[in-house]
Amino acid sequence: SVIEKSKRLAAWTAVDHHIRPEHKIIGIGSGSTVPYVVERIVAQGEQVNRDRVFLPTGFQSKELIVRANLRLGDVDQYPNIDVTIDGADEVDHELNCIKGGGACHLREKVLAEAADTWIVVADYRKNSQTLGTTYRSGVPIEVAPFAYAKLLQNVRRLGSADAALRMAQGGKAGPVVTDNGNFVIDAPFDADAFADPHSLLARIKLLTGVVEVGLFCKMARAAYFGNADGSVTIKW
Ligand code: DER
């Protein structure tokens, strides 16, 4: 499909630009775009990949690395990462991101921060001016299950009237449970709240019971978007 092609285009271009032989410790994000990142890294050949270590950002990411026969490492062994490449749900004009559509944003943010360079790869639907324009489900917030009901009240008080617990779709009754055993609250805000994503992040993060917030502010070195016409847009 056009969208899959644009994901692949973004991922391949980003790997070609940012994953060089001298990069040995590499963070792999989560979602449906990063498989193309792994595909392109594998294509660099066994030789160069032999002395690299790949750090996952969750169960799906780990499976990607294992299935590609790449060497699996962990961020407690390798706390300083050369480059991490990840997807995003939306990216604004300043490279602030909404992330967490896949409920992996705690480990993703740890590996984004731990990397000298953090790169975002996405299809054209994620390329936005202001957050909340194309990704309408709200800010994903990973929360301690014990605190979720109080947090729903407090997030609503922050201005997200429609904040809701993310429920599993089919195959499991009840809420989505993250790789860390936590719940996720999706909190839609209106446009002016997203005008200053960093202050929104700070306000949400300070609520008791919040584990991590799916707003990644001023962390990306660059964002690569594949376009439907086969071109690539790079924001930095
Ligand atoms: O959850 C996340 O932040 C993932 O990176 C995910 O949202 C990326 O989405 P994708 O499947 O469009 O790559």
Q: Average pLDDT, to the nearest integer? A: 98
Sheet with most strands: strand arrangement? 2-1-3-6-12-13
Helix content: 25-40%
Radius of gyration: 17 Å
* Count of helix runs: 8
Main beta-sheet strand count, sense and barrel state: 6 strands, mixed
What would you say this structure looks like, in words?
This protein has 8 helices and 13 strands. It has 236 residues and is of the alpha/beta class. The strands form 3 sheets. Strands 2-1-3-6-12-13 form a 6-stranded mixed sheet, with helices on both faces. Strands 8-9-7-10 form a 4-stranded antiparallel sheet. A hairpin with a 5-residue loop joins strand 12 and strand 13. The longest helix is centred in the first third of the chain and has 17 residues. The model has no long low-confidence stretch (mean pLDDT 98). Bound molecules: D-4-phosphoerythronic acid (DER).
